């Protein structure tokens, strides 16, 4: 009984399908782009019931009879078309590939987004100390895996190398590092311009690890050597971490420009003084050389044979009348 019902349902489903000989021979092509915007959809497809969102017919075999039941579809008028997705805002232009320096102007994208990053606190950064990266925020304590030389507890260090500076919603990243070449091996890191942020760390002190004793032995030798090690580490505390505003950066740029002009004027004055000293020294050397040449000529003239013959000639004797 069950197999007969399934056979009848299959036969009814085959008969419900449209025969292949009744399908059109030519296919109608559409040149409209395949997007979700309603303006790109042709009007016949918009009016068609298959284009709008509706529940598809669900065919389920009926075990009690040979006919199949079809769930009623929702009317097209009651279904609301989904709104068109908003157009994506244009992305900011990429930053310059070259690392920023004190005289490099900030890019337009950084000038546009820096006020937003400055307004949203707190900030964090990925600082680099001796080629090691540390993600820090204000008040963090960092224990370096080495003993930093030439520092004392209480010293304030300016951390000016960072690859990431950001907040909860905004992030300023440095350009990608440069891969080394055969002539110049080694990867070159590039960092965020240190004019846009200020990070200072205070040296808290040093910590030492527990004494470690390592036993060193050799084969066929009962002697055991004990190597002792007790390393010390420097501890830092992040005392200041802020992102500067655009006005502060521009004011600093003006100060740097004025300082550069003043330094160039001082260098030009020093070069002029150096030229004057060189000219005076050169004039003195020329005068000294001229005097030496004149003395040499006078000496050679005095030692010449003509002068000795003239000196040796006797004076004429006067005859008395």
UniProtKB/TrEMBL annotation:
Annotated Polar residues bias: 65-79
SUPFAM superfamilies linked: L21p-like (SSF141091)
Region (Disordered): 34-107, 255-321
Biased composition, class Basic and acidic residues, residue ranges: 263-304
Entries under Pfam families matching the protein: Ribosomal_L21p (PF00829)
Biased composition (Pro residues): 82-96
Membership in a protein family: Belongs to the bacterial ribosomal protein bL21 family.
Protein name per Swiss-Prot or TrEMBL: Large ribosomal subunit protein bL21m
Organism: Phyllosticta citribraziliensis
């Amino acid at each position: 009984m069950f197999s007969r019902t399934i056979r009848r349902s299959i036969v009814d489903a085959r008969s419900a399908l449209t025969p292949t000989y009744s399908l059109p021979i030519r296919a109608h092509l559409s040149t409209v782009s395949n997007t979700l915007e309603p303006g790109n959809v042709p009007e016949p497809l918009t009016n068609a019931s298959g284009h709008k969102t509706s529940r598809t017919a669900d065919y389920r075999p009926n075990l009690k009879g040979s006919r199949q039941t079809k769930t009623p579809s929702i009317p097209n008028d009651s279904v609301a078309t989904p709104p068109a997705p908003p157009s994506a805002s244009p992305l900011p232009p990429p930053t310059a590939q070259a690392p920023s320096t004190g005289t490099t102007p900030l890019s337009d994208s950084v000038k546009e987004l820096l006020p937003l990053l400055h307004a949203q606190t707190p900030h964090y950064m990925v600082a680099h100390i001796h080629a090691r990266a540390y993600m820090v925020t204000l008040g963090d304590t960092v224990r370096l895996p080495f003993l930093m030389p030439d520092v004392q507890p209480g010293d304030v260090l300016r951390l000016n190398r960072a690859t990431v500076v950001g907040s909860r919603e905004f992030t300023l990243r440095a350009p990608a590092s440069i891969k080394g070449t055969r002539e110049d091996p080694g990867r070159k890191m590039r960092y965020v311009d240190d004019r846009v942020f200020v990070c200072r760390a205070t040296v808290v002190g040093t910590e030492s690890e527990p004494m470690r004793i390592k036993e060193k032995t050799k084969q066929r030798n009962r002697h055991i050597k004990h190597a002792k090690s007790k390393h010390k580490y420097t501890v830092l505390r992040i005392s200041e971490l802020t992102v500067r505003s655009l006005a502060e950066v521009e004011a600093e740029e003006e100060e740097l420009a004025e300082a550069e002009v003043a330094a160039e004027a001082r260098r030009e004055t020093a070069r002029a003084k150096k030229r004057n000293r060189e000219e005076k020294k050169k004039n003195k050397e020329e005068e000294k050389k001229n005097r030496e040449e004149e003395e040499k000529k006078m000496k050679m003239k005095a030692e010449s044979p003509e002068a000795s013959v003239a000196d040796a000639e006797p004076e004429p004797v006067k005859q008395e009348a």
